[in-house]
Every structure is written in structure tokens, then in C-alpha cells.
## 1
Amino acid sequence: MSLIDDLLELNLVERQLRGLQSRVNSAEVYFRAQTRQMESLEQRLEELQTRRKQRQVATHGHETDAKTIDERLEKLRNDLNTASTTRQYSTVLEEMNTLKSTRSGTDELILTEMTEIETIDQDLNELQEGINERKTVLDSASTELEERKAEIADRVATLKTEREVKAAVIPESSIEIFNRCAEDFEGDAMAAIEEIDKRRREYCCGSCNLNLPFNVVVQLLGASDTIMQCENCLRILYVTPELKAETVSK
Ligand SMILES: [Zn+2]
């Protein structure tokens, strides 16, 4: 068999494989979209949890401050009772008043933090519900994907082996060109040359309709072991047996 015949056979297997895999593709796209959404929800969850922790640390700090102030106030109250002079009395009283004002400021700060934590907790609850719902969707998307993969697994394995066998007889450089074309054109790597007008020797690429000089046809007819790519769509050109028979007969 000629190189072109080998490539055509390889292309046939390649197209079957890609056809099968396209059945899985839509399930894969859906699964990936669901995964991304889940990831962004989880990221938001992490952000909220971090903010909650920061608020808790701040609250704890304010509470410690309040406790220190309370202890100091307690001591000052004793001092007040045992104050022997008016001056002592008023000094203690002044400090107590300042501390009480600071203490009420601290209470406000604690209240603000608590309110903020409550708001965060509400957001966390809603978010957790969202995550639970998304998880159900994600699980079924994953099951669907696995089922589709399983459906085609045997056939894909057979075709992959077949592709290896077909590729083994083709030179490495040609395989590289073929693989590139197959990748770029979703398995549609080869283009048959079509006859436009036999008398005027007009031919074109069957894939993109680019006019091909007659000598390209002649070259391909003469040496079926060279690869020629369409200058426009870059697919590997080949002459069908029908065209060959017709061109050679005259
Ligand atoms: Zn073309």
C-alpha cells in the first residue's frame, strides 16, 4: 500500500475515535463547568471563614480589654472607699470616669463585631445550602461522565490499538504532519482532489475548494509516497481511485 493509502486508513480510524469521543465531550464540558462553579463557591466559603476568624480574634481582644478595665475599676472602687483625702478621692474618681467611658467604647466595639459575625453566619448558612445543592448537581454530572466514558471504553481501546497498528507503518515525519492536521481539523486531516473541468485540467481541494495547479495532481499521481498539503487549508491532499482511473485513462 502507498503512503497515502496508509494515511487514509489511519484517518478513517482517527475519525471513528473522535466521533466516539465527541459523545463524551458534552458531558465533560458540563462537568467542568459545574466543577468551576463549585470551586468558586468553596473559595467564597474559605474567605468568609477567614473573615469570621478575624472577627472572633478581634472580639476576643476587646473582651480581654474589658476584663482588664473591670479589674482596674474594681480596684479603684476599693481605693475610693479607703481614700483619706479629697484630693485622693477626686483623682481616683477621675480615673474611674475615664475608664468607664473607655469601657463603654469597648462594649460598642464588641457589639459591632458580634453583629458582623452574625451577618457572616447568615451568609455562611446560605452559602452552605448553595454548596450542598451544587454538590448534588456535580455528583450527577460526574456519574453521567463516567457512564458515557464506560459506554465507549471498549470500542475506544480497540480503535486506539488499531490506530497504533496503522500508524506503525507510516514514517515519523508523515505521522507528525498527519497528527497536526487531525488535531487542527478535528480528525478531518485529508482532502480529496476534485475535478472541476477535465478538458481544461482544472482541479481543486475537495475541502476548501482552492484551485490546484495540474502539476500537483500529476505529482501525486506519480509519487504516492510524498505528502502534499493544500496551500490554503493545509490538509493532506490525495487522489481518489476514481480520479486516478479517469486521469490516467486519457
Ligand atoms: Zn484545501
## 2
Amino acid sequence: MSLSRPLRSSLQRLHYPLRFAELKRLLKNQQLTPATLQQQQQRDLTTLIQYAVSHSPYYGNRFSNLEWDHQLNRLPILQKQDLITQRDQLLDHTADPATIKEGHTGGSTGTPLTYYYDQHKLELMRAGQYRSFMQCGWKPGESVLQFWGATQDLSPKQTLSAQWQRLISAEQTLAAFEFNEARLQQWCREIQRLRPVVIRGYPSILAELARYILEQQIPLPHTIRGCFCTAEVLYPWQRKKIEAAFQCKLYNQYGSREVPNISCECSHGNQHVFTDLVALESIEVDREHQLLVTSLTNRLMPFIRYQIGDHGQLLDEPCSCGSPFPLMEMEVCRSNDLLQSPNGQRIYPAWFIHLLDGVEGVEQYQFLQPQLEQITLTIVAQQPLPEGLQHQIEQQLRQKMGKSMRFTIKQVAAIPRGASGKHRFVRCDIN
Ligand SMILES: [Zn+2]
């Protein structure tokens, strides 16, 4: 049974009043001036910090001798390690345990984390996603097709409430752990059947799907107005493929499970920071621009100056799209994707990606550093690799990282993805 868009939208509004109230508020914020938004952000920050100090034992302790003088950069940084060792201390001690849920993130990539959340955080996260989707012309109640990997999002519950939610939902999720050509074909049929307005997924998966669509010249429904990608680094070649295949703009979203909706790309191709939801800082550590994020809305488990593990910079320039939200620039990097040379230098993934420039027929690849002096390149390619490629890359690696580097290429049929379905082009496995 399928409902019309207006009916579905009305039923959703009834079923998720909090989500739609938040959406209304978020959309209103888009109409504010940059100066008003900044004042509002300062107020939100003050409220949050005062709340955290008086309700979370961790912050009560950590901030006990600090005077809040509206300068976020004077407060201590929250590390991922703190999240692991101080998880329960971070929690609002007045929260009703019955309302607290556990979320997990980063199982196979980086540091596995458990965090707490409640229904409000979930509804606000969805409202934030809706606001981003609306940039491409999508309206609540219109169909969204997601290619997702995390098992926690995929287990269908059979309760009456869950069945009702599925009926009024316009969202479908296809499990994207592993795929082959047959699965890609199946996904294309699903796109044709579901006629989504928004398609969302990891860039590596959307790029694979886009390659297949272009190669097989598969006709897609004209309903698609925007693609959204998140959770992985997006490379320019992936964007080109995805936009060509789906014939629409690709919007890059940035956020994590523990702190969602940090920024999203606008129709003019710039990345705007949602300063009504977060306070974002970029600090220089070892010549890298580390991002620190403060969630302005999470009181249950406050994240204040959280070192999220991504790199980027805040930009002080306007965007002609008219959004009052300031701009940022992501750097093509996640901390655990930096490889290390024996002399202590850390090398950005983008450097490795160019080693394969001009090599034909490459479908998938991964540079892996299992030990300090060893790098392995695993490649899935439609044709044999050019003779001398191993030697050529090894020379470049030694020049960049030192003469002791050893390098091997393995051509394989498939590269297994992490449990979440994410693919990483460059991975450092040294402890
Ligand atoms: Zn813009």
C-alpha cells in the first residue's frame, strides 16, 4: 500500500510533531542575518556550558576552575579517548534512564565509540537532514532512497508502531555492505521502481552505482532532484561520475553519528556550517587543521570542543546562494587515513590517489599500511595492470617516504568493506 505525498506528509506531521516543530525552527533560522545567528549561537553556547557544568559530572570537574568568558577556545578539548573512559561521567545525571538510548559509531574505521542519545536528539537530527534535503527541492513526504551499511539502521522491527512508521515513511534503505554487478543491477531496478526524489549514500557506493549506470546506459526516473553523500571523503572524480549518472547535483553533507548535521553543501557548491546546531572550530596541530565541534543542542551528553578526527578550515567569505551560515572547507582527510613515513612525516590520502593517475580500468583500490615500512596496494581492475606499475609506484613512494619503504601490488576480485559498508581508499593499520 502506498500513500500520496500530501497524505503521507500530513500523517508524518501527526506522528512526529517534535521533528516538524524543529524543522520549522531550523528553516526560520535560515532567514536570519549572519549577525543575529552569531548572537544566537553565543547565547546557546552559554546556556549549554552552564548546563553541562551543573549536570554532567565530567564537565563539573573539568570546568570547575574555569570562568566562562565567552571564549570557547579557552576550554579544554574533548578527545575520543575521553568519550571511551568517561562515557557515564559525561551524561546528564538528572536524565531519566528510561529515555536514554545507546548509539555506536566507527566500529571498523578508527575508534569504536558508544554514546548516549534520546528521542529529541534523533528527531532534531532528522529535522536537520530534512533541511539539507530541501535545498534540492525535496519536500517532506517525498521519497528518499538510502544506500547504507550500519546494521543498527537496517534491522526491521515488527511492532505495530514500527509497521505504522514504515507505512507513512517515504524512506527506503538498501543494505550496502557488499555488492557485485548483479547487486548493482538490482539496485537500479529499485531506483526505477521507487522513483526517489533524493538518493543518499557513501560516495564510494554512489560512485560505483554511477559507474554501472553510465556503462550500462540505464534509464533513471526523472523524479531524482538531488544526491547526498556523507561519512566518507568525497573525491572530485566521484562527484563527476555521480552527477553525470543521476543527472542532478551532488550535495556533500558533513556530520557524524555522535554530532550530526555539522555542515552541508549548498546549490552553489560551498559548504555551510549550521551554526544554529554546532559551534565549529579549526585549530592547527602539527601543521594540520583539526576540527573541534561543540553540539549546541545535546544536553544529555554534551560534546564541547570535541576533536572529531576530521580536518578542515573555516572560511571568512560570503556565498552568493544567500544562506546566512558561514562557510568551511573540508580537507580530504580523516585522521586514521594519514599514512606515516619512517621519519615521522604524515602523508595525506590525496597524495596516494594521484599515484594511480592514468592507470586504465581501475574499479576499486586501497592503499594499506600494515607496518611502518610496508605499503600494499590492493586493486580491482577490469584488465591486467600495466607492466612496471609496481616499480614505478615504489620509486615514488621511496622518494616521498624514504628508501626503506617496501611496496607490493595485489590485484584482487573484490576488496571487503568494513562492517558499516564504508570503503577507505587509504588506510593506516599501524597502532
Ligand atoms: Zn552557499
